[in-house]
Amino acid sequence: MPLDIVIGTQWGDEGKGHITDRLAGEADFVARFSGGDNAGHTVAIGDEIYKLHLVPSGIIHSHLTCVIGNGVVINPSVLLREIDELKTRGVEITPQRLRVSDRAHLITPGHIAMDAAQESVRGQAVIGTTQRGIGPAYTDKAARSGLRAGLLADPDDLAQRIAAHIEAKNQELGRLTGSPTLNTNEIVNQFLEYSHQLMAYLADTPAMLNQAILNGKNVLAEGAQGTQLDLDHGTYPFVTSSWPTAGGALIGLGLGPKTVRRVIGVAKAFTSRVGSGPLPSELSGDVATRLRGTGEMPWDEFGTTTGRPRRVGWLDLVILRYAAQINGLTELALTKLDILSGLPELPICVAYDLDGERIDSLPADLKVLAKCRPVYTSIEGWNEDITGARVIDDLPFNARRYIDFVAENVGVPIHLVSIGPGREQIISY
Prior knowledge:
This protein is an alpha/beta fold. The protein is built from 12 helices and 19 strands.
């Protein structure tokens, strides 16, 4: 059963790219299974920082094959730009090393324009999307009017379908906001050029991955976003438009449940999220600024894709227990523990107070969740700089106590701990 799944346990931005890069050393395939270029995964190799949006984080490892699965929505312009940037930096990318599912769906300028228009008419109910066309592309997919990547292999059919698609979007945009008309001919020509450049990357990736597993190869499924952004299981409607949970990995890659070996949940040592919606342990003031950072460093709490400052809060174990349940986690990877160094006291949310009643589970009703107040247990902090730790015994006692408290209260062992952005700064526990 050689499928390992990496998923986010919070609202995304947990450091999944960092952990995926570490685990990719033992994999033969790394496969993205959901989302689009609204995801941003940062990988640090020495002094080199790679910011990835569609290409799987395993691409930096030269020995393996990367896959963009059928559950992903792809903006061809973004994918080609990312490929070119990686090639410029010496990363080998060929159609043999990067395979794109012919069942994945395409994002067009029509989807991007619809995304912006829909957000603009929501008023105070704005969701806070990245406005990259992700939601509208998934909407078309569900409505059975989407454009599959396999069209890139048939330029004549592609031209007709893109033209009809853009004309339909122009009508929708006109009804919504009276937005300027999209240029159909220009967009058709753009996509014909994309066809020429991307056709060779297309593959029947479910067949390829299933055969690889039958041959005993190791497949690492890389998630985007996090459990609380899952379309069904997240803080709806402040969610993404796909399934970034473990079940979504199977749907988004075309694999069966018997293939799963491990489900690794990635959790930040505190909590963050971008966009609107509830964040029960949210902080403001000096402590929030301290956790967030200034934005000068690539790993500070500013969106890799949007650059927006993230909202931050103390670690929420109600959220983590929920993620463990929904995803069937076999283990956790705890990231950014080093950011907590120097704080005298570290509150951890262990439950919620709802109108005087303690609750340990996550309410589905956001009006109820908005009334919940965190119940904290505090762990004494540590002053030592832990970024040079290479084995768990190098960590101060209180840092190890923090890790153990989280594992015991979530009910899932922590096997990896990140104390910095480098590969060598992920230690086994």
